[in-house]
Amino acid sequence: MTRSSRNPRSGVTLLEIMIVLAVIALIVGFGAPRLMESFGRAKTQAAEVAMANLKGAVQLFYIDTGRYPTEAEGLAALLAMPASTAGWRGPYLDGESDLTDPWGRPFLYASPGSSSPFSLTTLGRDGTPGGQGEDSDISL
Fold first, then answer.
1. Which residue range(s) make up the domain with 69?
2. What is the rounded distance in angstroms from the CA atom of residue 131 to the CA atom of residue 133?
3. pLDDT tens, 18-30?
4. pTM across the whole model
5. Each residue of 114-131: pLDDT tens digit?
């Protein structure tokens, strides 16, 4: 029975491991900003979709009641029937979470809107008016 002798030169050296780790770090360093940018775009797109759903719910409220929710009632009128509202057939949304943007703040509702019967707005990631990119306001 012969024993296979191990070649002392076989295996991975510390230098080779360090080079592989450096290459991985470079790939992550260049890829992470793009990945984070994609997450930001995804939240903006999610806000646009949520606002489109809210717009549809407000329009259903209008079809059923013959009026849009007042600013005093706000978007909560889509979840619970406001006092003395005839024809309400809601709730028009699944729950409270539908009233908040992807950044956890409530959507802003105005009735009447500047150029339409109502407007919906989210102030973006930073929560302040204006901004660019992910911090920009989104309105319907």
1. 41-139
2. 7
3. 899 999 888 888 7
4. 0.68
5. 788 999 999 888 877 877
